[in-house]
Amino acid sequence: MPELPEVEALAGILADRAVGREIARVLPVAVSVLKTYDPPLTALEGRTITAAGRHGKFLDVATDGPHLVIHLARAGWLRWKDGLPETPPRPGRGPLALRLLLSGPERSGFDLTEAGSRKGLAVYCVRDPAEVPGIARLGPDPLEDSFTQEVFAGLLRGVRHRIKGVLRDQSVIAGIGNAYSDEILHAARMSPYRLASDLSEEEITALYEVLGATLRDAVERSRGLAAGDLKAEKRSGMRVHGRAGEPCPVCGDTVREVSFKDSSLQYCPTCQTGGRPLADRRMSRLLK
Fold first, then answer.
1. Please, which pLDDT band fits residue 52 given cuts at 50, 70 and 90?
2. pLDDT at 34
3. Distances from the Cα of 58 to the Cαs of 2, 140, 151, in angstroms?
4. Hey, is 268 helix, strand or coil?
5. Strand pairing of 23-28 and 122-126?
6. Claim: this prediction has a pTM higher than 0.85
7. What is the DSSP string of 31-82?
8. Which of 11, 160, 252, 279 has the highest local Cβ count within 10 Å?
9. How big is the CA angle at 147 (ends 129 and 145), to the nearest 5 degrees?
10. DSSP assignment, residue 131?
11. What's phi and psi for 72, nearest 5 deg?
């Protein structure tokens, strides 16, 4: 799933290539992708793109009229094209969900695609991004100057939930998902099962520092890359996420995994849990 660094990079690509240009057509291909009806997508046509930004994991394409807000969900992606086909796309079983064509003879613009059968990609045409329910409930952005250590400590105070889930909760902190929460906790040498309310001041300080450093490093690595290269860059930068069975780059222990119904987490026992493997109840049931 694209998270804060990748969405930040995609916003940068659109800021460089689309801001100041006029939208010629917006063509929805998958009916399920559009989550709003007023204003209609056609209200974007003829409008000039004025900015491209991010709200957590939501991509915001602002015009001199409505905003086009995009959530890429688990398997969605934005693909910039310098020469889109002249033939309008036809609805079908392919990955294409929406096409946006900019004015001009070069026919540049972007496609939104989504792989797999579980469709979650969402597109909103709104007058204000705050009209999108997912944006309205977002917590603070961890890359904003206002996200201080005191703010972070206040978000954790009294929260009796595992720190892994707290970091992923978009209503607590905006933009961190499964992958970067694994990386942050590994860098902090902290078990994903620790309760947020049990963390000491020293642990909160260490977690705050590596949270910012991990995200900023990922943003810098992604800056300037083509959209097609962002996924590979994300994978190459991971130390434990997606690397179950491989040696930890810090201590050499084997990276372990805990599986859940719809996701999994990866961690290093030596670095994070005092050498003790975490219980993987799903695998235990399969082995009975």
1. very high
2. 95
3. 10, 14, 22
4. coil
5. unpaired
6. yes
7. GGGB---SS-GGGGTTPBEEEEEEETTEEEEEESS-EEEEE-TTTEEEEEES
8. 11
9. 85
10. G
11. -80, -10
